[in-house]
What does this fold into?
Amino acid sequence: MDGDNPFLPDDITANILKRLTVRCILRFRCVCKRWKNLIKSPSFIEAHLQHSSNQRTVLLWPRYGNDNPLPLYLSHCGIRIFKRIKAPVAAEGVKIIDSSNGLLCFKIVDDVSSPPSLLLPIVNDYKIVKVHVNKARNVNGVEVYSLGSGSWKEVEFENLQGVSVTHSGEAVTANGVMYWLGISHMILSFDLATEVFALIAKPLLFISLLSTLSIFENKLALLFLSSAYSIELWVMEECTSGISREKWKWTKTHSIGPFPRLLRPVTIWRNEVVCHDVVMPRLEAETGELTNILYVFDLTSDGYRVANIGKCFHGIFNFCESLVPLNSDHIEEP
It folds into this structure.
């Protein structure tokens, strides 16, 4: 460090600050103008996001009840609840769709026939994809909102005629592609850059209704409870060789169990599979209240943990805090 300059070089300062929480970083904007400009720079925001995504991901779930605004709970290593935050929305009639880059997408539950939409980043933009379905759960309309342009538009979906999605309609995203779990033997995909739909076959012998899509090592993954009461993890990869006629290949990478009870896989968090009881909630003997139990299985060992996360939770999401800004404060309904 130069004796005439009391500041560390910007690259060293950024490498230190990116390891801190958002709350600390926002306070440090007041240290000096140089730090303020560094913290709000796109390069630092991206570096902090990458570090948070790899090191500071947590589980987030809302608890619905009479509380207003909607309470959100965060948990990290050990599934220990360590923070309760309040969302800036009322609890009644609101559902969290998913989290992306530290941002949360909320949906006003006014149309039970449509699967939830999802907020996702792609080519320096955020898009909300809204898939409309009829009573038979068949896709009959698709709209996409771009935060960059601030407008909705309809998207072609001719190749989805007769395709049905699950009742939850929840989607996951990997490498700029969204995926929905279909009711039949197909998975629905949507490329956020080209805005083109495609259909992908599920693994052979897939018959489980207790299944969910997730992301494992930045690839699409399918978790399901097998007939042997074991949870299987299948990962999809793109075929790069010209030998196979199929564009995609499924590989079973893990099998957990068998279990003495029915467990529903929820998500993959870091290197762990999160599940909950199919028969839930459970009556707590000491308090007499209905509670929910999570089972967390480590994919790198045979260990697992059990956690009581309380009552009335709806959805569990991977979440990482970030400095990523929005370009718009309000999104109008289409």
